[in-house]
# Entry
Amino acid sequence: MRYLPHCDQGIRSMLDTIGVEKINDLFSGIPENCRLPRDLELHAPLAEADLQRHFQALAAENSVDDSWSRFLGGGYYDHHIPAVIDHLISRSEFYTAYTPYQPEISQGTLQAVFEFQTLICQLTGMEISNASLYDGASACAEAVLMALRCSRKRSKVLLSRGLQPRYREVVMTYVRYLDVELVEVPLAADGRTDEDAVKQLLDEDVAALVIGYPNYLGVVEEIESLSRLAHASGARMLVAAAEPLAMALYRSPGEQGADIVVGEGQSFGLPLSYGGPGVGFIAVRQKDMRSLPGRLVGETVDKDGERGFVLTLSTREQHIRREKATSNICSNQGICAVMVSIYLSLLGKNGLPQLARDNYSRAAYLREQIAVLPGYSLPFAASVFNEFVISCPRPASEVLQRLERDKILAGIDLINDYPEIKNGLLICVTEQNDRAQLDRLVDALKGAAA
Amino acid sequence: MSAIGSKGLILNEKLIFERSTAGRCGYDLPQLDVPSVEPDEKLLRDEIEGFPELSEVDVVRHYTRLSTWNYGVDSGFYPLGSCTMKYNPKINEVVARLPGFAHLHPATPDHLSQGALQLMYDLQQALCEISGFPALTLQPSAGAQGEFAGMLMIHAWHQAQGNKRHKVLIPDTAHGTNPATAALCGYDVVPIASDGVLSVEAVAAAMDDSVAALMITNPNTLGLFEPNIREICELVHSRGGLVYCDGANLHALLGICRPGDLGIDVMHFNLHKTFATPHGGGGPGAGPVGVCAALEPFLPVPVIMKEEDGYRLVTDRPLSIGQLRTYASQFGILVRAYAYLLSMGPQGLKRATELAVLNANYIRARLEGSYHLPYKQRSLHEVIFSDADLPNDCHTLDVAKRLLDYGFHPPTIYFPLVVQGALMIEPTETESKQELDEFCDALIAIAEEAKSSPHLLHEAPVNARTRRLDETLAARKPRLRWEKG
# Structure
């Protein structure tokens, strides 16, 4: 086997040093009645060439290839990934390292993650970011737990109906056996979270109000007034950004009073990869620093006074506090956070806002064309970013099926998550969709109306 | 000193923000072929203050230099106990990047994602066969989330039976994630003392009808197989509880013993340990969870079903604990793990376990005279020493830092907590005898240095990128982001 370096002679001499006859003797600690009396029934081993063929065949079974036009968003976004990223993270010093427990030989990871923390703070307008969490939905759930921890006696959390439905479900899973009540806040007619409803639902028992920015329907929420309402009743304002590119264009949640900002960083240089790995982020205010879950990198100096970085504030974590820890998380998304840092460094202060603007313009172009198509309409009037909802003249599933024949994945059917939107279809446009693709989609939609 | 660590030119590098030069950009946007439209002005933000401005070359140099300050499995021996830092095969990286996988959007309809679903289904079947569990979820993002899923299922099962149980038993050797997870699931933690291994009596004494589950690690964090595991499982079951197994150390059992056959009800895997997916400097990992038949209805959604016309993701499962992440899995990690599994085959996996145990025992034999061995029982894939015999105020931390000078990544230190000053060594099977000998020679030399020239330990490291870093300062005055000076 190519990954195993041992030869018979070496094994013999190792056994002699140990003082046993055969390898099997080393397993004498496992009682006979715990042993598997047969061989495992698995596929016979594949050589590298055979393995590659096998995986190519499997990958080809995924019928959608790059010749298709795809308008899928909903929390995972198809942005172009600069070639630089894969080259840099393929340096094995990055990807084959463990968590940087020995900082003196891990400064590469530590500094890159410190930069990630800074970039996330700058983008969200917040004060402190951790080293990343699993993904957007679990980051949202961790943030809800954190808000509950910070306001001890409060046990209610308001979730906007505009919050990504999977984020809502994951929050539900996380608080399943805790004494917490989740209350849904309805949407107003323009697609934003209903402020009047928020006013009515906020009370002394509410720990946090949670909204999406943009929300799942692509709509840009008015964070500032919601923050004021939340703060007036002593609750924390929690903003979840599933498409954080929007924050390069629109006012940051931080400047609008958010207390906790979470999101999914996949848009920033990570492949779609069927939904993972992505990278969750969480950014908070200074006052909540010690309640923050997950890993943190901090600056310090070495014995000679030189700048260096270490994992820090570990007294919040489970290897010290055990059952009293802020979370059971003992890792971050490591290499994915580095990918985000590289992506944001490449686009930077000039490129990222311009990319966001272009995404906006492309979506606006498509939106206008669809708005005038007979039978189609735009149910929500509020501003959007690169994603929006249309109402189709017939069930979205039928429209989608029809367009698949033209190698178009037109969007996400909203029937299960938002049955109240008539024939709702969620369409996403990025820089990967050129004008020809947009025009083709419009034509195809026209054809599917009949 | 006979070290593989040596001198080399190390390049300095500022923070990315300090490298920034106004007006640069490392990315050219695709041409905008639609009319440019102005968004609502009231909603717009000002510039992103502090964001860097760099060319592509700036960025490449920056991260290339940072990478040279790191140590990875490809750099050398990485014997972190409990972390299973084995070699990460390169072909796995290649297949995970195939466009058919990498470009697949998670909202793609099932009938157009059959390859991905088949891969997941096949991996699921293989992990069931390896572990002896009849059902399994691939969803959890890491071991800790796997634990969480497992304990939620245990809670859900009790609830469905009408049981009101509020305690979870956890041995003192357990990973810190175990108690944190139990608390997250609404349980009170009851620690039980073990003397290296857990006795039936200790469990019996703590096991009453308020106990929902026992969380156990097997082999445990001392590298010892729990010999009473079958009796312990029977006891817990007879008193109405379930048994959770932390699968962090499954690596010692491949093809030799299946936890599902022993009476264990739930176990998580760490694909980034046992199945060779890279650790990425902290993640991502993946933490699938195997369960016994009674717990199958409680698996997180979506579950993958194989039907006549293909594979399908199913969410309509009324007893499910729900969803744990935005989309179905850390798919890219699953691809790598499955590639590893297929490369090894059944004999290869068993051989990997045998050689991992051989390597650990070889290190044990070579170091036994130089370092204190707190547990004498036959250990499996890892071995734990302590600093008890070191003279001249030399401690585990000093040994670890001195190892850096010799060119090795140190073992896990100060864990498990039951051993004072623990040095926990897990070599894995992908290290050769030569590599192990160099490492043992270094550790033996360090033990000698502790006697003859302890300052070498106290001053270490001197060859690393930095000297010893001030962790106290970092925690006392936290600086968690760069600020414009």
Q: What stands out?
A: The radius of gyration of chain A is 25 Å. Chain A has a mean pLDDT of 96. Chain A has 13 helices and 14 strands. The longest strand of chain A covers residues 206-212.
